[in-house]
Design goal:
By secondary structure, the protein is mostly helical. It has eleven helices and no strands. 34% of the residues are buried.
Length: 277
Amino acid sequence: MTGRTGTPMASPAREPLRPIRLFGVFFRIGALNELQYRANFAIQVFQSVIALATGLAVIGLVFSQTTHLNDWTRPELLAVMGVHILMGGLIQTFIQPNMVRLMADVREGTLDFVLTKPEDSQVLISIREVKIWQAIDVVIGFVVLGVGIAQLQTSIGPVQALGFALALLLGASMIYCFWLILTTGAFWIVRMDEIHELFDGIYQSGRWPVTIYPGWLRVSLTYLVPIAFAVTVPAEAITSRLTVETIAIAAIFAVILLLVTRWWWRFGLRHYSGASA
């Protein structure tokens, strides 16, 4: 590839760290944009504290009637709740804002500005929006998770910590794929603004381990909407419940989803008419 002056241009494929550098640039831009509205920080803290208090009240109500919920103890459910808040914060900080912007770009035809850039389009549409105030939920999630771990009767070793980190990464990857597969539907369906509200409603089911649900719902929350892989499996890792078979299934399913998502994105791009059409 050559530039207008005839000088060679670097190919993105030769720079494996280029997406990471681009993410750093977009993160700084997003942070600067958010810091202009510092009142949003107080609002987000208030909303997060209310949600946390509500969740703790529900757990307290449940365990005022029993000592176990389908073999899950109170500290273990605190760990599940912590992972649920943590993952929700990651989704609303990095994944959901990019998907919402993608839907708007497809509807308005402004996706052209992304497609003309000398970078992989899927990478660009996945990293250009960051809502840093939503990261408050990430912090709160870690705090709740830490409280739950402190109340557990078993110690957390390097194996559990590594399993948790791997499960969290795989779960976040699956949620990203789920979001992008749905959002790519905007190439055919113009109005998809309610998708994030629908997902938020479904995601609330993840505040409890999927093992407490009926079989059909458990399967749906595992393979149709990967809430189980995103929340329950990391919680199982930190509470010494995770098996090698489960983490292997999660890894295989994540790889399959990433490949399907890549193909689906490219297929969708072929149906994008753009602003100049």
